[in-house]
TrEMBL record:
Ranges of residues in domain ABC transmembrane type-1: 88-277
The keyword Protein biosynthesis is assigned to this record: no
Pfam families to which the protein is assigned, alphabetical: BPD_transp_1 (PF00528), OppC_N (PF12911)
Highest taxon of source: Bacteria
Keyword Cell membrane: yes
Organism for this UniProt entry: Ferranicluibacter rubi
Localization, UniProt: Cell membrane
UniProt cross-references to Gene3D superfamilies, sorted A to Z: MetI-like (1.10.3720.10)
Membrane topology listed for this record: Multi-pass membrane protein
Keywords tagged on the record: Cell membrane, Membrane, Peptide transport, Protein transport, Transmembrane, Transmembrane helix, Transport
Family: Belongs to the binding-protein-dependent transport system permease family.
Full protein name: ABC transporter permease
Annotated transmembrane regions: 29-49, 92-117, 137-163, 209-235, 255-277
CC annotations in GO: plasma membrane
Length: 290
């Protein structure tokens, strides 16, 4: 077996071991199953949704849950279940793009600040502290107000506010690794600082960052829903869960399903990411023998 194939085999073995640990834990297994359902639902939404999400039928407005409309209809006669199913696509898009933004950005800022130290570390951490001093929703509101209300700008705003905790974590991890023997050996062999950070430090920080990113996704979902609720995220007629709650709140006293079902979807997905993050932390903990 070549070195490359052996490394690939080791990576797959570790991945399968982590997956087995996640499924063995009831809470993280539940979270993993819910997120898997979210992924599948988003991918096949056009085929499993019973109706078009934006199909208006005023004759069927505000109908309660029934065999015809399992989650009822909204004020325009649109099927709530179909809109929630299609809304999973928006939620998955937000989660994916924000993860791609905050994971690498937080990892880069944290590892470089921790490794270089000095004035660069001071400046980057003060910027991080400024971001951390504001609630994520408030800061996202400020960015969206500056950029304009839209789903794209909401995603950018959430991405710009979600990286500081990851950067803090990556910096703390880097401070524990930068004087390790294998780092010193790399320096003596003439490896550049950038190569040391990318090849030696970032891989060591990756498990903790992955856990942090997973846990952050619960906050991302809530922030996106908050922006949608305030009319600053996805714009009508997009079936975004927070926007659905905002529309349904005017009718909620007599038509509870308009807020209960999208609110339940937000709660379930947020809980799933929290449970999965906790399970990942246990599965990737070196003290557990992995």
């Amino acid at each position: 077996m070549t070195a490359s194939s052996e490394k690939t085999y080791t990576a797959w073995s570790r991945l399968l071991r982590v997956l087995k640990d996640l499924l063995a834990n009831p809470s993280s297994g539940f979270g993993l199953v819910v997120i898997a359902i979210l992924l599948v639902t988003a991918l096949v939404a056009p085929w499993i949704a019973p109706y078009e999400p934006n199909m208006i039928n005023l004759a069927k407005a505000l109908q309660p849950p029934s065999a015809t409309h399992l989650f009822g209809t909204d004020e325009l006669g649109r099927d709530v279940l179909s809109r929630i199913i299609h809304g999973s696509r928006i939620s998955l898009t937000i989660i994916t793009i924000v993860s791609v933004i905050v994971g690498p950005l937080g990892l880069l800022v944290g590892t470089t600040a921790g490794y270089f130290g000095g004035w660069y570390d001071t400046v980057m951490m003060r910027i991080t502290d400024i971001f951390l001093s504001f609630p994520s929703l408030i800061l996202s509101l400020a960015f969206v107000a500056a950029l304009g209300a839209s789903l794209e700008n909401a995603i950018i705003a959430i991405g710009l506010t979600a990286w500081p905790p990851i950067a803090r974590l990556a910096r703390a991890e880097t401070l524990t690794f930068r004087n390790a023997d294998y780092i010193s050996a790399s320096r003596m062999q003439g490896a550049s600082k950038l190569r040391i950070i990318i090849k030696s430090i970032m891989p060591m920080c990756l498990p903790s960052v992955l856990v942090r990113v997973t846990l952050s996704m619960a906050t991302v979902i809530l922030t996106a829903a908050g922006l949608g609720f305030l009319g600053l995220g996805a714009q009508p007629p997009l079936p975004e869960w927070g926007a659905m709650i905002a529309t349904g709140r005017r009718y909620m006293l007599d038509n509870w399903w308009l807020v209960a079902f999208p609110g339940g979807a937000i709660l379930l997905v947020s809980l799933a990411f929290n449970l999965l993050g906790d399970g990942l932390r246990d599965a990737l903990d070196p003290k557990q023998g992995h």
